[in-house]
Design brief:
The chain is an alpha+beta fold and 201 residues long. The chain contains five helices and eleven strands; from the N terminus they run βββαββαβαββαββαβ.
């Protein structure tokens, strides 16, 4: 089944029995990006800032004071129901004086999140292979400048005394070409590991 992510910020607002719900959704390539999005767009004066993200097999959600299971989980289910991945969704609620009850909250949070994703500008995700690349600081800039040529995205970055380690997602059909280019660019000194090859090189 095809999976989709967003190409730009998506927003949607709805009033449910005098409570205002505002949903914001964005592409997030890693958990840090998702948490940064929530921090930047949460509204301190609102009653609740509830959220969820899914990035591959990683997901988290937060009810922010709403009864357990009535906010964050329905937002996550909306992400999954819309076949989305690598997205973060924040739903801000301003309480209007009428309690919605657990069922009403689940419908409101899930419905607003789903509509926000439905209306957003989406793009199909490409089947990716995961690579672990290691190279020296001397080769780092050159290698990094070429990654985009292969549609590769850096998902994680670590530095140590020897240089840099990147976890990279690359379209599966371009993985062989990227490995060949990486070997050339590092004159055979760079190390790599593919998800299908736990031996490494």
């Amino acid at each position: 089944m095809a999976q989709y992510t967003l190409t730009e910020l998506a927003t949607y607002q709805e009033d449910v029995r005098k409570s205002r719900f505002a949903a914001l959704a964005s592409k997030a390539d890693n958990p840090d990006e998702a948490l940064r999005f929530f921090a930047e767009h949460s509204v301190p004066t609102a009653t609740h800032n509830c959220w969820a993200y899914r990035i591959g097999n990683e997901y988290r959600f937060n009810d922010d004071g709403e009864p357990g299971g009535t906010a964050g989980r329905p937002i996550l289910q909306a992400i999954e129901g819309q076949q989305c991945d690598r997205v973060a969704v924040l739903v801000v609620r301003w309480f209007g004086g009428i309690k919605l009850g657990p069922g009403g909250l689940i419908r409101a949070y899930g419905g607003v999140a789903a509509q926000c994703l439905r209306l957003g500008s989406r793009i199909e995700l490409v089947d990716e292979e995961q690579l672990l690349l290691q190279c020296t600081f001397a080769d780092m800039a050159l290698v990094q400048s070429r990654l985009g040529t292969f549609g590769a995205r850096i998902q994680a970055e670590e530095f140590d005394a020897a240089g840099v380690r990147w976890q990279v997602g690359v379209p599966r059909q371009l993985a062989d070409a990227l490995v060949a280019a990486f070997t050339d660019l590092t004159r055979g000194q760079g190390r790599y590991r593919r998800e299908a090859d736990e031996q490494g090189h």
